[in-house]
Input
Amino acid sequence: MSNNSIENLLEERADLTSELGTFSHLLHGSWVERFSVCSRPQCKCHRGEKHGPRRYLVVREKGKQRQKYIPNSQVNAAIKGRDEYRRLCEVVERITQINLLLMKEDAYEN
Output
């Protein structure tokens, strides 16, 4: 691998590392939308028009899954946070690939 290629990898890694600081709203969890039936026998939901969607973010707390209700006013923010988490995973994966390439070329600094 040429010195130019190594410099490009180091520059890409620096850019990715600086991007890590931009993920201040990230949310790690699975998105769930549910419709429900209430307990009122005469309600329209018993005739097929269910209530909802109600939105939840499923997260892990102390080793257990928990569903966290997301109010309608926060849906866009929650989706943005979930998307930030996905991007974080992509960035971490790419930094790992770059570091392994640098190690292979003995250009990984301690």
Observations:
- The CA atoms of residues 58 and 64 lie 10 Å apart.
- The chain has two helices and three strands.
- The first strand starts at residue 30 and ends at 36.
- The chain has a mean pLDDT of 94.
